[in-house]
Amino acid sequence: MNEIPKRISTAILNSLSAGVVPRIGLEYIAVGRKRELETILRDLENLGQGASVFRFIAGRYGSGKSFFLQAVRNYAMENNFLTADADLSPEKRLSGSNRAGLETYRELVTRFSTKLRPEGGALEALLQRWINSIKLELAGNAPGGAGGSSPFDEDLLPALERRILETLSEMEEMTHGYDFAAVVSCYYRAYIRGEDEKRTAALRWLRGEFSTRSEARAFFPVGEIITDDNWYSYLKLFGAFAFRAGCRGLLIFIDEGVSLYKIPNRPSREKNYEKLLTMFNDAMQGKTERVGIYMSGTPRFIEDDRRGLASYPAFKSRLEDSRFVREGHSGFESPVLKLTQLAREEIHVLLERLRDIHAGHYGYESSLGGRELEAFIDLAFSAPGSEEFITPREIARDFLGLLGILREDPSQSFDSLVYRDGYRVKGFNPGDPGYAEFEV
């Protein structure tokens, strides 16, 4: 494995040791999921051609849903998509009291990310890139070419404003498009003129931070503000704008969909499902342009006919597998992408990579070979039912814990740790019959 920058290896080791997904460096530890990733790559190709998509990523706790979403997010940014991600919680839903839907919108917009801004905060950079790209194009087309006219030449400003307004006028026919275009055009003028107060106000409006319409009208000629009821319409507008600003589209990643399943009040839960159904239908029926939405959740969130999406009749019919999928065939064209358990061979590769990253990060030569890794996998699957329920999250966390002990305490050995608490791995203990024949 090529040497990994310390910043990335630190993020990988710290995140996995804490049982969470690193936001960077996933390419160094990603294994398996070939068919699932091929499905997503087809989605992205379609999005780049103007389509829309909605998929649920289903898997039990620790099965790799969040990891999978982050891997897709990173790939999308590398391929010039604008991305946004948010984790649902009691405070952040799709709809609810205390502006729970608006809180989700605010997190998504705050976490707008691009290849150059992978950690979020890309909203203003996106606006400025759009303005400056038009300025540079106009400068290049001016008499004398790019070398004869500066993109900051005041002579270009009338043409620049015409082009800005022409682009925004294309979006005015969309729901809430007039107000969106009005605020973006005000941002443009404030940016060009150096009016920081108005520029900041425009960003606040786009992030949904104005509480009243009268407060917003002090800055902009708008009739609306972004609220708990209309926030999704503005995400669709951002998808259309992202394309005009030079991106291939907008990808939205919503994790912890099970938070909706946990809403105790049935009317409130169904109101969230109704909002989700609107988003789902818009994507599946082609009512949005260049917007992809991926939501992760447990199988219970999707399949439970008492509280899950299956309890909502309109969703139940839309998400039910065809009989051919139920008979054992793959269902990668379904809106529900089900993450299955990693194969032992894939887990072995994951452990190899973690071993090498750990050794490279701390500067030592690992003594763990294939036989030790197989022994660790045997131990991980030794509990009753673990073949079905052991997760990559648990395996990675426990393995990094083992590596940490071996590095920090030279008196410990792999054998002594593996056999601790009465655990024994068949075929690995030198006292076991057949030890000499144990092979990877």
Characterise the protein shown here.
The chain is an alpha/beta fold and 440 residues long. It folds into three domains: 33-114 and 247-338, Rossmann fold (3-Layer(aba) Sandwich); 123-217, no CATH class; 344-427, no CATH class. Helix content is 51%, strand content 6%. The chain has 20 helices and five strands. It has a five-stranded parallel sheet with strand order 2-3-4-1-5, with helices on both faces. Helix 7 runs antiparallel to helix 8 (196-206). The longest helix has 19 residues, at 123-141. The protein is globular and about 75 Å long. Mean pLDDT is 85; it is low at 144-151 and 425-440.
From the structure above, extract its key features.
440 residues; 20 helices; disordered C terminus; single chain; 3 domains; alpha/beta
